[in-house]
Specification:
Blueprint: H1 10-22, H2 25-31, H3 35-54, H4 64-75, H5 80-93, H6 106-115, H7 118-126, H8 130-145, H9 150-153
């Protein structure tokens, strides 16, 4: 997993935005994540925008941060090849690919949880630990509820 200054802030941001009836959410919305984290995310987003422009894509995807968080969580504390494998497995579970990950949405994750067996339909086939699976579900819930969004995470 890629960290910034040795820290992976995703879990902390998600927790702070949702814990204790979202008591810290107004502060997160007002002040946002640490500046160096925002700069890093914007740099990644800019590269993605440049890639999309170069390919002629006109995608206005508002779930880019959701997918990025899922990729970060799925690969957390794993070596490069293992992280890529788990990411590909997660994408396969939601009928997505690295080339087209648009099927990886909060609604799709929550649909699996609500209509199936989380263990056999999500966690095991993706190769996620219980903690990672629960974190991805929490991120999906936060995006669905609006406590997390590209706007919040990218400071827009």
């Amino acid at each position: 997993t890629e960290t910034i200054g040795g820290w992976c802030l995703v879990d902390g941001l998600v927790h702070c935005a949702t814990a204790s009836n979202s008591i810290l959410l107004p502060l997160i919305k007002e002040h946002g994540p640490p500046r160096f984290y925002l700069d890093h995310i914007k740099k990644i987003a800019s590269r993605s925008d440049d890639d999309a422009s170069a390919s002629g894509s006109n995608n206005t995807d508002d779930l880019r941060s959701f997918r990025s968080l899922c990729q970060i969580v799925s690969g957390q504390q794993l070596a490069g090849n293992a992280a890529k494998t788990i990411w590909r497995r997660l994408l396969k579970v939601v009928d997505a690919t690295e080339e087209d990950s648009t099927n990886l949405t909060p609604d799709r994750i929550l649909s699996i949880v609500e209509n199936g067996d989380t263990e056999s339909d999500l966690r095991a086939p993706a190769g996620l630990s219980n903690a990672k699976c629960n974190c991805i579900i929490a991120i999906a819930m936060s995006f669905k509820e609006g406590t997390l969004s590209d706007n919040i995470l990218l400071g827009g």
